[in-house]
Amino acid sequence: MVAKSYTVAFEGVEAHQVEVQCAVTPGLPAFSVVGLPDKAVSEARDRVRAALTSLAIALPSKRITINLSPADLPKEGSHFDLPIAMALLAALEIIPKDAAEGAVSLGELSLDGALVPVIGALPAAMSAAEESRTLLCPQSSGAEAAWVGAAEVIGAATLADVIRHFTGQSPLPPCAPGEIVSPNVAKDLRDVKGQERAKRALEIAAAGRHHMIMLGTPGSGKSMLASRLPSILPPLSAIEALETSMIHSISGLLDQGGISMQRPFREPHHTASMAAIVGGGRRASPGEISLAHNGVLFMDELPEFSRQVLETLRQPIETGEVMVARANAHVTYPCRFMLVAAANPCKCGFMFDPSKACPRVPGCGEEYLGRISGPLMDRIDLKIEVPPVSFQDLDLPADGETSANVAKRVAAARAIQSKRFEGKDGLRSNADVQGSLLEESAAPDAEGRSMLLKASEVFGLTARGYHRVLRVARTIADLEASDKVHRNHIAEAISYRMASANS
User: According to a count of CB atoms within 10 Å of the terminal CB, is the N or C end of the chain lower?
Assistant: First the structure.
């Protein structure tokens, strides 16, 4: 007789079902694991053997074979320990076979039988729900997995608890979802003195999920503005929170099973590699653009990033997903992020500052910003010059508009967009709309269309640039709760598009 249990193998954020088969047959004593296991899975036999020994369970002097089916699917990670132990316990008739087959299990075993938390409990719970099975996992991973809600989640502290649960001696209660993680105290937009135009652009970017770049001298407040963006963004919806948390679960970033409703804000250093930004490595792990899914990717000193890294952003910006292709894996991760970039206008940074004459103007600026390719710049909706703040403005009290007030307008604009795109799969903000729906929802009035056509000819807008102006104008109109896109909305959108034309 062959005993079975079930677990999952991860491919990106997807969890594929794996059937763990255990056969105890006559022959020379041996314990082998087959089915394309990696080193961590192959070592499971030693951890399982030691854990069973700690419970005074002796393995029979027979041949024990564990098969992980389908055999052509790569199996990676230490979470196969518990399902292997489950199948073996069922084969030894210590726990009922139907109980082992009715659960999807994952967890790492320590040598004394304790269950160690593993990554990926949330996607595993999604897979268990699809198969109408219970999820069995380490106790510390239960709160995370219970957020799915569609599958019963049982958390156990030790292998002994698992045995007592399935033999009816001491049933374990279902796990409850972890607490919602309280967001960090957000920095307030009121702290930024001056820079009213940049604040306005930040509000528009937040309202429509538009990509944005800020150009300015060192110390003008670019990073300060970007760091306050989370304070005006609306919280994640339930669907968005689950999407984002699944990626963070695979990356081991969920804190004690809690889920945050605050949008991610990732700010990688400019020395980050392409694999760190886009995703990759031996296990094709998600990169920064996927960890920023439904949130913000802030890239400070944009020209200092390597050319290879910058060019890989072009496709994810357009499609909202990235395929990480490796010799042993082709994994697709979602990455619908808002790119916010900051850059100095030249190497020294003072090309725009009249008080500091630079003898290399304008060649130094053209050379420095030339590191950002034209196709990438064409995908950025808002381009803002951030001038230095005068000392007189710095002495003024902080009496500007608070983040809370701006956040209300942003939330109202997002609500308008949600209603507009209701029932349209994949559309959540103005930045996502395209084709006939863009022409329908963002069609300007006669004066606005005339201005846009003239600007397109004068400034040589590409077709992509033309449509991005329409999207930004639609967001500006949403902030004013206007059903129609008017001439003033088009004019403001064009001004942000051409702000860096002279640089």
Answer: N
Residues whose CB is less than 8 angstroms from the CB of residue 128 and which lie 6 or more positions away in sequence, other chains included? 103, 104, 134, 135, 151
Are 444 and 489 in contact, with CB atoms under 8 Å apart? yes
User: Would you state the structure tokens that stand for residue 410, as one six-digit string?
Assistant: 């942003």
SS3 category, 138? strand
Peptide bond into 362 cis (omega under 30): yes
Could you tell me which residues are beta bridge partners of residue 329? 326
Residue among 298, 249, 303 at smallest CA distance from 277:
298
pLDDT score, position 182:
73
Q: What is the 3-state secondary structure (H, E, C) of 434-455?
A: CHHHHHHHCCECHHHHHHHHHH
Q: For the chain, how many residues are written?
A: 503
Range of the domain at 31: 2-166
> 3-class DSSP state for residue 3?
strand
Provide the sign of the torsion angle of the four alpha carbons 151, 155, 159, 164, taken in this order: negative
Find tokens 């393995």 and name the residue: 59
The answer for residues whose C-beta is within 8 angstroms of residue 132's C-beta and 6 or more apart is: none
Helices 463-479/196-208 angle, 10° precision: 100
Q: Give me the pLDDT at residue 472, please.
A: 96
Residue 255, pLDDT score: 74
The enclosing H or E element of 405 equals helix 403-420
Q: Helix, strand, or coil here: 366?
A: helix
Q: Are residue 162 and residue 225 in the same domain, yes or no?
A: no
pLDDT at 427 over 80: yes
Let me know if residue 435 belongs to a domain.
Answer: no
d(CA 156, CA 226): 43
What does the alpha-carbon distance between residue 340 and residue 230 come to, in Å, rounded to a whole number?
Answer: 12
| DSSP secondary structure code for residue 119 in this structure | S
503 pLDDT tier (thresholds 50, 70, 90): very low
Please, what is the angle between helix 403-420 and helix 196-208, to 10°?
30
Domain assignment present for 416: no
Q: Would you tell me how many other CB atoms lie within 10 Å of the CB of residue 61?
A: 9
Each residue of 23-65: pLDDT tens digit? 999 999 999 999 999 999 999 999 999 999 999 999 999 999 9
pLDDT at 488: 96
Average pLDDT over residues 111-124: 95
Two tokens at 107? 């967890």
* Domain limit, last residue, from 339, 362, 389: 389
User: pLDDT value at position 502?
Assistant: 39
- For the segment 169-186, what is each residue's pLDDT rounded down to a tens digit? 999 999 999 888 777 766
* Token pair 């031996």: residue: 282
Residue 287, domain CATH: 3.40.50.300
String of DSSP letters for 245-281:
HHHHHHTT--STT-EE-SPPEE---TT--HHHHHEET
The neighbour count for residue 86, using CB atoms within 10 Å, is 30
